[in-house]
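Exercise 3.2. Students should predict the tertiary structure of the chain below and write it as structure tokens, then compare their answer with the key that follows.

Predict this chain's 3D structure.
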Amino acid sequence: VASGERDRAGLSYSSRLNPSAKTGTQATDGGEEETERMREATRRLYGKLQEAERRHECGRKALEDQATHHQEQLAEARASLQRSEERVADRNERVEELQRLMAGMEKEHQTLAAKMRDGESQLEDLRAQNQAGLADHHRSLQLEKEVGTLREKICHLNDMLKSQQRKVRHMIEQ
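Answer key:
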């Protein structure tokens, strides 16, 4: 009885699915048709499922490839950024070194300029002294000439005096 009820329940279920299903022998033939249609629908659905899985797998693979590509690009961008940061740091170090050198050169320039001003001042003093010294030198030369002339005159006078003294002695002796 339970088996018959199941058959009827199955038949009524399949009748609901396929209203054109017949009873009895027709039901058996209709059941085979129904089974065949179900198998065909299952095959179609399974084919669609496989196609969807293939598309899904291709999409997943494409996304993985794209993610890998983006990760590679990100790694390259990070490496490029790091290199750029290193170049900027090196450039900043060079700029700081050049600024230190320029500050040192500026300080040296100021020191040399002060020394130059001192030297120019001393040179002006020496020139003034030389002018005075040159005048003194000329005066000294002139005085030396005068002294030389006076010596000659004195010698000449001494000679004349001696000559006169001899003449006087000679006159006295006579």
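Discussion points: The chain has two helices and no strands. The radius of gyration is 67 Å.
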